[in-house]
Every structure is written in C-alpha cells, then in structure tokens.
Structures
1.
Amino acid sequence: MERKTVYLNRFGRRLGTREEGARVREILWQVLESLSPGEKLVVNLGGLEVLSGSFADEALAKVVEQLKNGELPDRYLLVKAEEEELLEDLSERLARRGLALFALLKDGWRILGRLPAYLEETLQWIVQHEETTSPELAQALSISVKNASTRLAELQKLRLIELVRESRPVGGIQYRARAVISSKGKD
Amino acid sequence: MPPRKLTVWRINQALSEWEQAFPYPLIDLAACQVIDAFALAFLTLYMRRCIEAGGQPRILLPQREDVLNQLVNMGLFRLLGQKVWTDRPPPEEKLEEASCRALLRVEEEREIGSLVERVSEILESRFPLGKRSINVLTMAMVELLQNILHHANPLGQDIHPYGLAAVEEYSDHIHLVVMDKGVGLRGSLALNPRYRELDESQALEAVLVEGASRFEDPGRGGALRRIREVIQANEGRLFVRSGGVAFWQAEVEWSVGEVHPFPGVQVSVQLPRALFFG
C-alpha cells in the first residue's frame, strides 16, 4: 500500500488551539485528496511535545469522521508516534466521536479511540494474518460467514481495513480484507 | 482588617469587603506581605470591573518594597492605566525578559500559540528535567485560554471578559492562573438546553466532573474535566471559581462551596515542583 507522510512538528512542538487545528486539517485533507485509491496518509507526531485535545479533535478526529462518513473512499489515515502518552487526548476525542484510528508506536501498534471488543478481536486477527476473506475469518473466529462479512464491513467503514473486490475461482465475486498495517506495526 | 496575605485562599474575604464600596472600593494592601498570582490577576479583573462601572478603585500600596515591586512588575498598573488612585506614585515597571510571571492578556486565539510557547520555553530553561510537567501545564494553559475566547462571551454581548494568565514559581510548586470576567460556566452551559435548568454549583460540577459543554458536537468541551484529571494524576491542586461557587480539588478529593459572587471563571492550577525535576 503506497503512502505519504506529513510531519506535524513542522507546525510547532506544542500544538494546542482549535484555530491551529483547523488550519492543519485543511492541509491534511488536501494531502488525502491527492492520494490514489488504496493509498494511505501517515501523520507523524514525532518531535511533538504537546498535542492538546482541542487541536487533536480539530486536525485529526474531524478528518477521521469525514472518512468514516464515506468521503474520499479507499483512502486511509494513520498516526505514528514516539510516545504513547502524547496520544491520550487524541484517543479520548476519537472515542467521544465513536471513531477509531491506528497508531504506530515503537513497539507495535494500538487502536486509538473506541472500537468494540468484537471488532478489535477481528482486527487483531486480520493484522496478524495480513489478509482474509469472510469464510476464512468465520472459520478462524468460529462465527457465521454473515457475521464475519458484517464485521469486515464495519472495519472498512472505520477505514481500518481495505476491502478489495476479486473474482471467485468458481464464479461470482468476493471481497478480500487487507490490513492497513503489517503485523509488526509497520505502515 | 487589612489582609497580610492575599492569595487564592484569601481573596474571597477581601472581595466581600471591597464590594461594600463598589465601584469605589478602598483596597488596603499596606500591610500585605504576600500576594500570589491568582490574587493579583483577580484584583486586576475586579478593578477593571469597577472602572467599567464608572467608579475608581483606590489602593493603599504595600509598605513592603518587594511586594510593591511584584505588584508593579507583574503589570497591574500597566493593565489598569491611570484610572486607579494610589496613596503614592507606584515605581516604574521593570520588565523581566526571562520571566513568565507578568500578567498576560489574551484577546485573540491566534495569540495563544506564541504566548504559551514563550511560557513553555522559559519553564524549559528553568526546569530542563521537568518535560512532562511542563507539557501538562502547557496543555492546561492552551485549553483554559481557549475557553475564555470560546465561552466567556459566547453571544457577543456588551461585556468584556478580559482574559488574563500568569505563571509563578514557588519553592514547592508551580502556579498557573487563568481567568476572565465573562458569563461564567453556568452562563455558557445554559446555552445548551440540556443544562439550562442547572444552578451554579450543579453547572460547575457538570463541567468539571462530567465534562459537560454548551456544544452538542461530541468532540467539543470536556477540557476542564481533562485538566482536572491530569492535575489529579500529577498530585496537583485545582481551584475553579465561577459566579457564586467554587470547586476545589486536592489529591483525590474535591468539593464545591459558595463564594462571594464575581462574574466569569477564575482558575488556579498548582503542580508540585518536585515533578519539574523529572
């Protein structure tokens, strides 16, 4: 999956106000618009010391919400941080909006915001295996194929996985789910 | 009786005495030996309010030279101009470049970034090992200053919130003060129909404990609750005064009580200095 990276520390080490956040959101959105379907934007938070809740909500959570609402289909957003502590306020704002976002850390990845346990279990499995289909997932998690399909659709809506349409060998179509990150937490 | 100490804990009694002669109070600081940043910022707001009401505050200046210099160098007279009567001419203000103790005015959101950056740089040079604590203080300062601009006069009424901030250093703690004389927490929260019926103490609790906001947008609001939680996690103390009530938190306990009414929101954040050494 191709990617572009924006380093937020170019806007300062301490990012705080909504006004600043709104300006950065516009820039992030322009970069997302420039991506081709299937590509992702990594927002690198390295070098930042403060990321306030207000800034995080305005610059990042609102972008994630727009993506969840179906804008710019097949584009993905992740954040990358050196320190997990920096992500606390962002995670809280995402949770309040009912959103989830991948964060890449030194020692792996975690989900920011709010993700129900059954979706987190599904996502863990997909990341570990890198890709899957509904029947494979159903078998692995001992759930029905319909349930597996629903979970994949929900994760795709949250832009945490990519669903790629493909032809079945015996005729018809199926969707292959691909993790947006690798099992080692690499973007 | 003229106060010997004018601090966040003692300003309430002084206020009730000054109010008896509003808007021409006699503010007797002659015997004052200690004035903290909260009291000084509050005094500035109070005197602004007297002037806006057509009055003229009168000050008996502190006898102690260091206390008088503190009053002057933090910018009290710079902010109030010639509209205050004093029993003798105050000395000239000396600007301390490497200090963030002066009272800072906040009028526009775009000023907040550079102002907070300056305070953080000074704290960083003073406490190179206190990165985490400085970040906590920075976060609190950004959110509180922003709250003034977003909430102190939400309907654009004919009131001047007059946002002020200051940071001061003590032997055992760092003190951040942010305040205004706008509509107050209840005034802001009441714009949300869900909270319209709350009284002042209920509004204070709703904002600080539940994270309530005048905004329906789920991403908005909650900054004061978050600040309270972070202060608690860092063994700090928080005092928030709004209208006729105040909220006080030390360690894991908090309480709400009545105070002499004053418009706006006045916040004191104290973090133990030990944290600043990493």
2.
Amino acid sequence: MSYIAKPKVHHPSLKPNAIGLTRRDYEGALTTLCAGCGHDSITAAIIQAFWELDVEPHKVAKLSGIGCSSKTPAYFLREAHGFNSVHGRMPSIATGAGAANGDLMMIGVSGDGDSLSIGFGQLCHAMRRNVNLLYVLENNGVYGLTKGQFSASADSGSTSKKGEVNTMEAIDGVLLALTLGATFVARSFSGDKEQLVPILKAGLMHKGFAFIDVISPCVTFNDHEGSTKAYAYTRGHQIEVVQADFVPLRSEITTEYEAGSVQKVTMHDGSVVNFRKVAEDYDPTDRDRAYAHIRQHQEAGEVATGLLYIDPSSVDMMEQNDVVPTPLYNQPFETLCPGSAALDKLQLRYR
Amino acid sequence: MSSRVNDFAFKIATANGTGSGSANGLIMQSIFRMGIPVTGKNLFPSNIQGLPTWYEIRVNKNGYTARTPVFDLVLALNAATYAKDVAEVRSGGWLLYDSTWPLDPKLIRPDVTYIGVPLADLCNSAFKGIRERILMKNIAYSGALAALIGIDPDIIRALTTEKYAKKPALLDSNDKAVALGYDYVKANYDCPLPIHLEPMDATKDSILIDGNTAASLGCVYAGATVGAWYPITPSTSMMEGFKGFCTRYRKDPVTGKNRYAILQAEDELSAIGMVIGASWAGARAFTPTSGPGISLMNEFLGLAYYAEVPTVVFDVQRTGPSTGMPTRTQQGDIMLCAYASHGDTKHICLYPSDPREAFEFAVAAFDLAERYQTPVFVLTDLDIGMNDWMIPKLTWDDSYTPDRGKVLSAEDLEQAKSFYRYMDIDGDGIPQRSLPGVHPKGAYFTRGSGHNKFGGYTEDSDEYQEVLDRIARKVQGASSSVPAPFILEKTGAKVGIITVGGCHAACMEAVELLDNDRMPVDYLRVRGFPFAAEVRQFIDSHDINFVVEQNRDGQMRNLLLLETGASPTKLDSIRYYSGFPICAQYIIDGLKSSLLVTA
C-alpha cells in the first residue's frame, strides 16, 4: 500500500471535540487513490464519525484485506494500529483480534472483490459469529488495481468501460447480510456524507457486526454510462428509505421531531438511533419487511439506502462465548496457569 | 513350550463403532496398573461404524514401547477379517475367536492354537437388548483375555468401579460381562497361557496419556487464551482436550465466565487468520490441524513470517498427499512446515517424540513464537497424538513465567523517544513490538506488502532487502533456543542413527538391540529446527548416518542436507511410510542390509 506522509498542521480555528482533538488528529497519510475516488469521501466520513464520537484514536484497530479500498486505513487515524492483511481474509484477523482484546473498537474496510468473491466465506462467517466490528464494504462493482474486470457486485446487464456486458447476477451484500442474520445492516453512498456519518457512528457503537455497503464509484474504471455503480447512476436511483440520527449516550437531544415521525431504537450502551422514516410502513427492526422493501426498490431499478436494519438486542461473539470482561490478552498469568499441584492431581486420571 | 513373561504382543480385531474402544482401554490400563510397561496402537478406519478396526497391545518388561509386527495372540472378533487375522498370528501362537459359530476349516492353521469362546451366546443369554449385547460382548472378551494372560481381576474391577461410579447399572453389566468371559476360559482352558503377565513395579512414576491431550494441557499451562480451529483428523481431540481443561481451570471463580475463547472456524484459512489476529492483539493463541490444513494456511503463514506476528500451529501429521489415509500416521509435513508459504521463508519447528514432549514443547512453542515474533510449528503425528503412551509423569515448574518477547508496555512507549516496528536495535535481529489499544506512540501499520525497518510501505530494493535479511538472521538465531538434540553414544560406534519425532521409541529399541548384537551405533534425535550446531557435528563424526523417518522421500534427510551443508555421502536413509508406526526390526534390517551391501 503506497502512501505519502501527510504534514500535521493545526489550525487554531479547528473545533476540538470533547477530548480536545480536532479532525486533523483523526487523519492519516495522504491518499494515493485516483482523484475523485469515492473511497476518499468515505475516508473523510470515517474521520468525521470518529471525531464526533470523541474516540481516542489509539483505542481503535483498523483492518483491511487487499485492494483499493483496503489501502484506505492508512489514510485515517494515524495513531491507531492498522492491519493490512491478505486478500479477503480480514474478517478472521478481526475475529482473532476481537477475541484477544474485547476493548478494541474495530473498523474493517473492504471492497466488493475482497468481500464478495475471494473473502465471501469469511464475511459470511464473521456476520454469523457477530464479531464486534464495523465492516465497511466500499462497493464500486469493479476490480481497479487489476484494471477493470467486473466484480461480483456488478449488476447483470451493466457494461464495462470497454463495453463488455456483464451477464451474471450480482451478489447484493445487504440482502446477504439480512439473510445471514446480521444484526446491523446499512447501505449508503460515498457522495452522501450527511447520511453516511451517522450510520458509521451507530455502526461503531453497535455491539456486534455492523455491515455497511457503501456505493463508492470508481472514477477510472466504472464511472461511465452503462455502469450501475457510477456517480450519475447512483445519484439518480438512490432512494433513502430511512434517515438515521445517532445520539450517543448522555448527549442532549437537540433535533426536533414531528410527533409520530420518529422511531427510537436504544442500543446496548444506552445510545439512541432516531429513525426518521421517509417511506411509510418501514420498520428498521423488522428483518423480513426490510428485506421485502429493499427487494421492491431493486426490482424498480432503485438503490434503497439508509440504516436499513438493526437488532438492538444483538449478542456479540464474546458474549456468546461467555468470556470475562477483562481482555484475554491482559489476564494475569497466575489466573491462566493451574500450577504444579493441580497437575499432580490431574494426572491421577491417567493412572 | 517355555513361558514368556511380560514380553509379548497381542492384537484385537473388531468392527468400528461397537464400543471395543472401552474394552481395549480397560485392558491397557489394567496391565499398566499391574506395574508392567505397556503400549497400545489403535489402527482404525476413516469410518463411524462398521469397518474393521484393530488394537495392538505390547507388554515389555524392558520398557520398549514401539510397535511390534509380531503377534503372539490374536483376538479375532470380526468375521469379516478372519483370514487376515489368522494369518497374522506368529507360528506357535494363539488365536481366540467367537465359537458361537463354527470356524471355516480353511482358516485352521496347524501351527496355531485355537481358543474358542462363545461370546455371542454367553452375552445373548445374559443380556437383553441388541445394543447391550454387542457392547458387552467386547467387555466379555476382556474377561476372557484376563484369564488367558493373567490380568488381575481385582484391578479390572477397581477400574470399572472408578469409571462407572455414577452409573451403577452399567457397572453391574460390565462386571457381569467380565465374569462371563473370565469364568468360561478358566473352566475350559489351561490358564494362563505360556505368554502371560506377572506384576512388576515399573509404572508407578508414569501415566498413560495421548499426545493431543498432553499438548492441549501444555497450551493451558502456557497461558494460551485463544484457540481457533477447524475439525480435522487426527488433531480434533486436541481442541476437545483444551476445552475440557479450560472448563476445569479457566472459569472465573466468582462470575463463572471464561478466561478463554475457542473459535471453531469455517475452514483452516480462517482458523490461522484468527490465531494471527489474536496474537497480533497480544493473546497467546494457537490452532491444531493436520497436513491438509497446513496446505490451506500457507498464504497466512507467509504473512505471519513477514509481518512478524507470533503464531503457534500444531500439526498432527497424517498420511498424504491430498486426503491420503486420514486415520494413518506419517511424518510427511517436515518440508511443508519448514518452508511454508511462497517467497523466501523458514519456520521454527519443534518435533516432540511422545506425549510428554508434546506437553513441554507446547509451552516452548509459545515462548519461541513470542520471542522471535514468527510462526512456530509443533509437529506430532497420529501415533503420538491419538494413541495412549506410557510416559514419565508430567512436571511443572511453578517459577515459570511466559517469555512475551520484546513487547513494549504503555510506560515503555511513553518514555521512548521513538518506536519503529521493524528496527533491529540490539543486534539479534528481533525488533520491538507494540500491541493495539495500548499507547498512541505504539501505532504502526502491519502489512504483508513490502516494508522498511520503520514499518512504512516500500518498493525500494535496499529497504526491502534489509528487512528480509534481518528476518533470516532472526529465525536462524533460534537454532540455539529450540530444544537441543537428544544424543546417545555407544562405545566404539562409527555409524550414526538420526531420527525425528515418533520414531524415537523404535530407534531406541533398535540401538539397544544392535548394541547387544555387538553393533554399536550412536543416536541423535532432532528436536528442533533450525538445527542446532550439534547436529552437523554428529553427522561429521560418523562414517555414515542413517536418517530414520516415516515418509517416502526422506524429508528429514533432505532438510539436513539443505540446512547443515553436510555431505550427501554421510547420510543414508531408512524410510517407512505404510501409515502404521515404525518398528525396531525394520530399522535393524534396513541398517544391516545397507551396511552389508556397502561392505
């Protein structure tokens, strides 16, 4: 992953957050992606989300696989440990890291090749296990680094830059996540920061696997007419079915809502997501209805976006395994090793 | 014929899934409790129910525990394999069969004594229900055997009482079944046979345990908290062992919560990823697997090597290539583990020879992995992993503290002027390491792509080579930290035997027998890779060395040639790869025939 160190310049006018850090403190190296790449907008939204959540950067672990999207963890949170692993295998690294240190706030960044092809199995099983991880799938429908092959998320009938028509059905990450029982499922667009930031915040605070599919156009290989992952196409077909406002625990609710227009969902730590429903009869806590709704839009050639589904009673991997609250990596050795007396006693069994 | 006491072998032929495992275990343990050295080899099929299975038991007053191919007595209890089982009795030996049905006259050998016991008839009249009749038929043959070879019935009774303390009905059935076989044989045959047992006092400081159980106990004692795995024969019982021990020792006394996490992965790729993730975040983590699993893990192993993440892998080897024979033993992964993954790699390997070393090397593996920040393989095999071995009791030094290596704490980082992840600061090739979540100054980017000593991405040739050369130096440095070779010297020896892992018992027996035969040979067992300096010295100090191993291609011999620089003319080879454990006689024959040809 190539990168250029970014000078850390402080502007006195930059607003500090509750722990005294400015957005600059959440930045990383300079991007080496193409100018106009959707991924860079997502990086900016990630920086904004962490800043707004007042997170200490070094308490975060940022992980990725291989591909354009997987380069981006170098571009935010320079004071956090990063792990650029192997192609499609970031979920297993995150699963292990989360098991060793349950206090880590983990964000994984992946792409459609990394997630829906080579890493499809790992993605599915990390969802199933409900690893406490925010998983951002930066979805552009194309392999960029190898110069323009269709990915598994390319829609049937869409065309490549060279004019080739994709004849295979797309794998839809959101429908997949809903089917597999994921406890937090969202879709957004790299060009819609207003929608994306609150979803990222809610995803980071969600206890369990938070899946966000973000349409993120590839300006070099997949931004032409005929592509269904282009800027123009996405702007023209994005339908926001639900707007989510994330209100962290102990924050004052400042937004005024019209009575009856808001559905409140309280998260495990007491934070609240306020859903402003754009579509009537939409219930973001009803998996089956969410699924049906998204499918309806898909049939109409539209891309349904928003925090589409949340299970506020989510039980994450460590809870399922009934693990002690102190991180496993930090357990005193004397609580782990039974010692010589226990060994003598145990061996009576093998006599 | 003259009697042979505490020095014979017998084989029990049954069908898989009929419960013969409990009966065979009962027999082994009874002999062990009589104070007599005993060893058992379970030769089982890759099958849940119905296919033939054999259990071999050898008793030896000298403590030889290797497999022997000569059977004085065969208990032929599976009609489907009668012909094969009859053929396996040594001339002058005995064959026990179920005389409920007549034996085909074609199976009668004039040089074998036949002992008919109507096991099915006896059990059909004593027990109700098909399942119980089948299960108890097995227990009944242990009773018959007890009478024939002189197993103390009181010891059997004590064992069944311990085992079924909470199941009085089962205890009753077991005791009844033992008596059925025992009484019938006593009433109808001269007991005991000339081959029989007499109590000794040679097992009081030993235990009977399999290597997977012992290795998993080592993981618990080493402080491992994360185990990730995908079930694969013959390693599966290792994670079952770990779970059992954790349930016993790793529950928070107040909350009952777990001080461990066991993650059953979707495949071996994921299992090794979890181990790398957990180790990266500072936990002691491991995965047990077998050859096919190692094949799948190769990509990740290269990442762990290059990104310098501690990784502990147990490879309970089975026969390859491909699926091979999953329930048969081999040492076929020596090369695979030494150089796993693409590009230039070399990995620390430990080679236990029995369950005791499996326990000890499990602990050593975590220390080495963290000290050298690299993958460490513990290579056992199906024979070590799944068979019960008689080994000296395990011991533990309560002053042990884990070697976590150069991990910087929050205080270290706070005081440090700078931290660069891949910088060699004190000349041993081992860099400093930081854990996520600890301190902002510890932050770095872990990557499998080209990086320089500062941890930054690079495509610069010099920067890339600098890191790669340091890693080579680092791993080579482990040659003095891996367990030293085991060496046994005999006066006047000019010939050496070199071996590895589970061949040890057979080699030790061969060395003694050759010495008794006035053919002294020196003996070295490799216990770790990269090889210690003594290995090359041993090779050079003998006219010829026979590398004894259980694979087709002489993988250990090849590794010795590659890594020690010794002359190929110094290294001959004895290879055994039938899938069953090697025997002393095979080594003696191989050595003698080669030396005679050369002479």
